[in-house]
Design a protein that fits this description.
The protein has 476 residues and is α+β, with helices and mostly antiparallel strands. 40% of the residues lie in helices and 26% in strands. Helix 6 runs antiparallel to helix 7 and helix 6 crosses helix 8. The structure holds adenosine-5'-diphosphate and magnesium ion. Adenosine-5'-diphosphate binds at residues 130, 143-144, 339, 361, 363, 367-369, 371-372, 399-402, 425, 458-459. Homodimer.
Length: 476
């Protein structure tokens, strides 16, 4: 992402600043569970370590920032419209479902909801659209759109605060101005959107239920949202795993979801996006029960499906955006950020990818990092799947590989500062709330920068590839 190079520091100065920054993280709750401590993923307040972070914000030319922000409300609206077209979702994913059991299970729930004509009048989307700046074409291209469990609204806001604080203190020395780090209210804006959804639901005694994994080292990112919900809105959040929902949940005759004696206004998923979250049928029946209830689901099964990589690829086909958006200007803006995306029923593109695998990324229908296939593995996988025949290829999409320019960065992990060449990925959060015909919220809601050493293919922070970052706006 970085187009202008951030200032170089001598190692001693960088090390000293990293110590200061790590202390700031501890004091301000910019923390995650430490892998070294077994209990850190299950017992709050035990085994904390500062979240991995970049010492200085990644540089980004302001026009790209504005472009990404402008796209947020358009993507919010697009997700909503696509979600309402059940046939489009079922058709687009029909081949994938034959070969991908996880997608098939999600589609099954979706089909059941279509069959009973389930109406979701109140719809909440808390998305994050991720981009990289392609250095060859100098264009901002979308990596993916996350419609479920978009992480780091809580900690991401804190990284922006950290960077502003460090620059205020050391900026003159570094030649940086703190005002060029855009304010980032992702945490309060997401909490606000959840609170307004709760208000639209209009049952004072109801709670917000966060669906969590049984083990979660990123729990403080989630607790930040609960804290804002309680402090600023007086709303209680309960945390439940899918299996707890199955054990403690029921639907009352009027559709109300009752879990552990609490009426639930909003189900906010921070789990449920990977097959690992469904080790038995119990988790699937919990998912179905919540979907059948009157609680607002963030995301609903339809919103979840719109965020799959297959749908991203379908939307990039000619004349598909036109089905969902009227404004030519908006269509152009969205299309401009689409990288090359192909389904694997295209023999020509498979041939090209086998010849030049370094120019592509092969993606299965998975979320959470660590699933993509690159380089020689990509070639081998394509050749093998082609030989196997059948529909195996339908489990994947192929994407143009984006090459961001690398620049010098200081990545701090576990109290140690590493200097190296790094690339960044910009995530823009979007919040969308609708009640029937009334759009209550449709806005850009802060951002997240993630930076990783340029030699790494993958990007997840939780998965251990990247660090949290913010951004520094430059003139060009
Ligand atoms: N087209 C691409 N070009 C370059 N890197 C990519 C591309 N697509 C994905 N990546 C890298 O792989 C990571 C994971 O891919 P992504 O599509 O975001 O899947 P996930 O759902 O696992 O987050 C991204 O964060 C990014 O670093
Ligand atoms: Mg991603």
């Amino acid at each position: 992402m970085s187009a202008a190079v951030p200032p170089a520091m001598d190692p001693a100065a960088a090390g000293e600043m990293a110590r200061e920054a790590a202390a700031w993280c501890a004091l301000h709750g910019l923390v995650v569970g430490d892998r070294a401590d077994q209990r850190s993923a299950t017992v709050p307040g035990v085994g904390l370590v500062h979240a991995p972070f970049s010492l200085l914000p990644a540089h980004l030319p302001e026009p790209f920032w504005r472009q990404a922000c402008e796209l947020a409300p358009i993507f919010n609206e697009l997700v909503d419209r696509v979600s309402m077209d059940g046939n489009f979702l079922q058709d687009a994913l029909s081949k994938t479902r034959q070969v991908d059991d996880f997608t098939s299970r999600l589609l099954e729930i979706h089909r059941k909801m279509v069959e009973i004509n389930k109406e979701e009048n109140i719809r909440l989307g808390l998305h994050r659209s991720d981009y990289m700046l392609d250095s060859e074409t100098s264009s901002l291209l979308q990596i993916e759109l996350n419609t479920i469990s978009a992480s780091f609204p809580g900690l991401g806001s804190l990284v922006s605060d950290l960077h502003r604080t460090l620059i205020k203190q050391h900026g003159t020395l570094l030649g940086l101005e703190h005002k060029r780090v855009p304010a980032n209210a992702a945490n309060t804006q997401f909490a606000e959107a959840l609170a307004q959804t709760w208000a639209e639901f209009n049952i004072d005694s109801a709670v917000i239920m966060m669906i969590v994994q049984p083990e979660e080292r990123n729990m403080y990112d989630q607790y930040w949202l609960s804290k804002h919900l309680q402090d600023s809105h007086g709303i209680t959040t309960i945390r439940k795993t899918l299996s707890q929902v199955e054990a403690e949940g029921q639907i009352l005759p009027d559709g109300t979801l009752l879990v552990g004696g609490h009426k639930v206004a909003v189900v906010y998923y921070r789990a449920g996006y990977t097959p690992n979250d469904y080790p038995s049928e119990a988790e699937w029946s919990a998912r179905l029960m919540m979907e059948q209830s009157s609680a607002v689901k963030c995301p609903s099964i339809s919103y979840h499906l719109v965020g799959t990589k297959k749908i991203q690829q379908e939307l990039a086909k000619p004349n598909v955006l036109e089905r969902f958006l009227e404004s030519k200007e908006e269509i152009d803006k969205v299309r401009k950020c689409f990288a090359g995306l192909w389904s694997l029923d295209d023999e020509e593109i498979i041939k090209t990818a086998v010849e030049k695998p370094e120019l592509f990324v092969l993606k299965p229908q998975r979320e959470g990092g660590g699933n993509n296939i690159y380089g020689l593995d990509l070639r081998e996988t394509l050749v093998r799947l082609q030989k196997e025949g059948g529909d195996a290829l339908a489990a994947y999409i192929l994407m143009q590989r984006i090459f961001p320019k690398a620049s010098l960065a200081y990545l701090v992990r576990g109290g140690v500062c590493h200097e190296g060449l790094a690339i960044s990925e910009l995530g823009i959060y979007g919040a969308y709330l609708r009640n029937k015909d009334k759009v209550v919220i449709n806005e850009q809601s802060g951002y997240l920068m993630r930076t990783k050493v340029s030699s790494s293919d993958e990007g997840g922070v939780a998965a251990g590839f990247a660090v949290l970052d913010s951004l520094y706006l430059t003139g060009k």
